[in-house]
Amino acid sequence: MRDLNIDFIDLYKSVDRFIRDAYSTAEGVSEYIRQMEQNDFKGRHYVATWGADYDRLKRLRWIRNQLSHEVGYDSDICENTDYDWLEAFSKRLYSANDPLSSMINAEKADHQRRLAEQRRIQTQKLVEEERRQQMQKHHQQQPASTYSYTPQTQHQPPKRKSFWQRLKDFFSGN
Predict the structure, then answer these.
(1) What is the chain's alpha carbon radius of gyration, rounded to the nearest angstrom?
(2) What is 50-63 written as a DSSP string?
(3) Do residues 67 and 77 touch, judged by C-beta distance below 8 A?
(4) Per residue in 13-38, pLDDT tens?
(5) What are the residues whose beta carbons fall under 8 Å from the beta carbon of 18, sequence distance 6 or more?
(6) What are phi and psi of 32, to 5 degrees?
(7) What is the pLDDT of residues 52-111, one digit of tens each?
(8) Three-state SS at 82
(9) Which site from 30, 44, 53, 170 is most exposed, i.e. has the minimal number of CB atoms within 10 Å?
């Protein structure tokens, strides 16, 4: 256990130092957790593992504090899975695939998609306006016609005469 605890503390210090340098802060992991709390809504929207990462980071910070200030290195408070997760998290930090970086990248991509959609809509409106103006110009250039065009009405059959009208016409010779 002692070796695992020492390795865990060393790795934690490395992660903490990286975060302090990357975020220009004096608090490292604690500042990272604070940033996750401040961006919780957006983070949960953009990053599927946000909640689990947040909970695990808080637990690992607690383990570090316990080892450093309370129980000492001979306790069995740290497990192999804690060390393995912190190691994987440190790799994610170095590759900018950690929760905060992923959220920022997803926000940027979302913003770019919205801008592209706005540009597409603006372009479509411009094309439609240009077509409309061309049609107006085309109609203005047409020579005046010497005849007037009236649409043809639909041919309707003559009204049928009633029986009595036909009988009257028959006898009157029409």
Answers:
(1) 40
(2) HHHHHHHHHHHHHH
(3) yes
(4) 999 999 999 989 999 999 999 999 99
(5) 28, 90, 93, 94
(6) -60, -45
(7) 999 999 999 999 999 988 877 778 888 999 999 999 999 999 999 999 999 999 999 999
(8) helix
(9) 170
161: left (phi over 0), alpha (psi -120 to 50) or beta: beta
Concatenate the DSSP letters of all residues of 111-167 into one string. HHHHHHHHHHHHHHHHHHHHHHHHHHHHHHHSPPPSS---PPPPP-PPPPPPHHHHH
Whether 24 maps to a domain, the answer reads yes
Give how far Cα 30 sits from Cα of 9, 20, 87, 112, 165, Å.
15, 10, 17, 31, 105
Residue 171, SS3 per DSSP? helix
Is 17 part of a structural domain of the chain? yes
pTM for this prediction: 0.67
User: Domain range for residue 18?
Assistant: 2-103
Domain count, the chain: 1
